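PROTEIN DESIGN WORKSHEET
SECTION A - STRUCTURE
LENGTH: 476
TOKENS:
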């Protein structure tokens, strides 16, 4: 280990920075965020450093470096493009046993600045010891994406409760188990939802009434299929779950991301195939949560767009089960983007309508006259079975038979297929498309050939002017 990681308390401690340009500004910003008293030596100050000086956040000590300036200094940073000056500062700091950092010169550093993930009071630092700073930065970016922004508040509240926890739970093992449950349970979820009062009550419940605790349900949208389109919050939820109830539309690559020891239960529904009744799914959600388990209900697309998410939450609310929702990328937004079809376009479509082709029995209620109007996009979910009826109704109510359409099968996935044609060919194309499939009707569908980017055109079927564009490369 070339460097010992140490978190230094710099509050009100004097730090000398030699240099006043852009690079110095980055270091000064970090020092100020840590509460240091910053003294600057520089011939001139850049815009940002000058602003700090004008607002009295830093002290402009002098225009040239003198060894005596190191008196009573806690640590030193040199950030100039003058290598002779940097060497002089380094030598003087070493002689006075001051910690010194020469920016971009690891050989002349007794301390280094790591890449920082700031979730104060929780701070994560990543360093390559100056060997590969870009690699350290890339790793920091990945960690930034994985660590919720609410972690700092979680740590702050936990710190306020440490005394009570230590007083109530006498052994180290008991306390460790308690905090593990709290940090992966509903308390952390409530903080993430900015329900701080409820989070405090949950922490109190976990500490003093652990035997009475109830589980909770997180309704997660898995997106249209490509695992790269799962949201970060959704990923965090499925990696913390005890049980995951998932639909048939959730792909295997997304299920692979679920925590290894979580229980997976398929409650999928597919036309013409065995499926779990909605009432049974509702019962399972309530029953598993009442057992104290952390349950995730994982749905394809977005759970509130033709996903029955609202129905399931009503059941949970009636049973007094705590829940939260993680939205997902709905199929209409995701698969059309991967097919190069914008849902709206200033010249072609001023509105978009999401429609389900699988309504509750006896509740069609579609206004076909309105849907048949031009310069709007219709995105139809679960519409392949009723494609013939949709085609006939739209033409009957005035939509031109030559209106461009696309049927996008298995959108966003490696085997995505986009079949394009006109409204009079909708039924025929829908029969050819792999499922799940989305129907897109409107002038924007014609842009597919120009804007397609996901995969390559590998074949064409000349008959009836129909084209087939399988996407065979997963770029996500």
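SECTION B - SEQUENCE
RESIDUE ASSIGNMENT:
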């Amino acid at each position: 280990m070339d460097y010992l990681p140490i978190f230094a308390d710099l509050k009100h401690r004097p730090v000398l920075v030699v240099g006043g340009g852009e690079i110095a500004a980055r270091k000064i910003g970090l020092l100020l965020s840590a509460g240091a008293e910053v003294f600057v030596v520089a011939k001139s100050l850049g815009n940002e450093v000058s602003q700090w000086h004008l607002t009295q956040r830093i002290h402009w000590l002098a225009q040239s470096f003198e060894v005596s300036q190191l008196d009573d200094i806690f640590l030193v940073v040199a950030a100039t493009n003058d290598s002779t000056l940097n060497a002089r500062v380094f030598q003087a700091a070493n002689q006075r046993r001051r910690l010194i950092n020469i920016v971009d010169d690891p050989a002349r550093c007794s301390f280094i600045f790591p890449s920082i993930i700031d979730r104060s009071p929780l701070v994560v630092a990543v360093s390559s010891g100056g060997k590969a700073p870009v690699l350290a930065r890339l790793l920091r970016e990945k960690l930034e994406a994985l660590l919720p922004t609410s972690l700092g508040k979680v740590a702050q509240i936990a710190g306020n409760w440490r005394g009570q926890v230590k007083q109530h739970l006498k052994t180290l093992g008991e306390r460790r188990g308690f905090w593990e449950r709290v940090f992966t349970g509903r308390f952390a979820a409530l903080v993430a939802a900015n329900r701080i009062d409820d989070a405090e009550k949950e922490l109190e419940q976990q500490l003093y009434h652990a035997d009475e605790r109830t589980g909770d349900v997180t309704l997660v949208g898995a997106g249209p299929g490509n695992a790269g389109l799962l949201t970060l919050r959704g990923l965090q939820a499925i990696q913390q779950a005890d049980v995951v109830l998932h639909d048939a539309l959730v792909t295997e690559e997304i299920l692979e991301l679920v925590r290894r020891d979580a229980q997976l239960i398929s409650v999928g529904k597919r036309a013409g195939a065995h499926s779990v009744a909605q009432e049974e799914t509702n019962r399972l959600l309530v029953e598993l949560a009442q057992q104290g388990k952390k349950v995730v209900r994982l749905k394809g697309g977005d759970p509130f767009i033709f996903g029955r998410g609202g129905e399931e939450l009503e059941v949970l609310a009636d049973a007094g089960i705590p829940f939260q929702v993680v939205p997902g990328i709905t199929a209409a937004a995701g698969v059309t983007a991967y097919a190069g079809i914008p849902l709206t376009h200033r010249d072609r479509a001023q509105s978009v309508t999401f429609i389900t082709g699988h309504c509750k029995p006896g509740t069609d209620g579609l206004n076909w006259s309105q849907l048949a109007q031009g310069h709007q996009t219709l995105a139809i979910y679960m519409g392949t079975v009723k494609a013939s009826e949709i085609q006939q109704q739209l033409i009957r109510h005035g939509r031109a038979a030559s209106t461009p359409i696309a049927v996008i099968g298995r959108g966003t996935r490696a085997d995505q297929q986009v079949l394009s044609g006109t409204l009079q060919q909708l039924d025929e194309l829908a029969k050819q498309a792999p499922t799940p499939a989305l129907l897109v009707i409107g002038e924007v569908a014609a842009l597919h050939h120009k804007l397609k980017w996901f995969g390559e055109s590998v074949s064409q079927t000349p008959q009836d002017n129909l084209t087939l564009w399988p996407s065979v490369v997963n770029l996500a």
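SECTION C - NOTES
The chain is about 35% helix and 20% strand.
Confidence is low (pLDDT under 50) at residues 457-476.
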